[in-house]
Q: What sequence folds into this?
């Protein structure tokens, strides 16, 4: 889980340009430019000074960039937390084996656990 527009913006800043960012993201350069333009339209102003090599951040861009880094870091933490094996197991499902016995099946830490239950 992440915000693709923040990833694109951060990659443009990190790479210093749209073309290098597009290569890294395996996107077309126009798609990268369009994403940044949409982000700028949404925030109400330019985030990057175009025409400089490498690209530079505007004042608004510096603020936006700082928040983008923090938000992306939070997404990374969230993804790690929810994929961590310490997350509690799914509820145990009871399966009748048809011979008077039953099995409890659950998933914990990415492993399937099967337990024969007393009937």
A:
């Amino acid at each position: 889980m992440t915000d693709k527009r923040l990833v694109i913006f951060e990659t443009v800043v990190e790479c210093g340009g749209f073309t290098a960012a597009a290569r890294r993201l395996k996107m077309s350069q126009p798609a990268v430019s369009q994403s940044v333009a949409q982000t700028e339209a949404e925030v109400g102003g330019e985030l990057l000074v175009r025409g400089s090599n490498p690209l530079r951040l505007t004042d608004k861009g510096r603020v936006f960039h700082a928040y983008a880094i923090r938000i992306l870091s939070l997404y990374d933490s969230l993804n790690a937390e929810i994929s961590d094996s310490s997350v509690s197991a799914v509820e145990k499902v009871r399966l009748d084996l048809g011979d008077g016995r039953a099995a409890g099946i659950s998933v914990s830490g990415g492993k399937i656990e099967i337990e024969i239950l007393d009937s």
Summary: The domain at 4-83 is CATH 1.10.10.10 (Arc Repressor Mutant, subunit A). DSSP finds four helices and five strands in the chain.
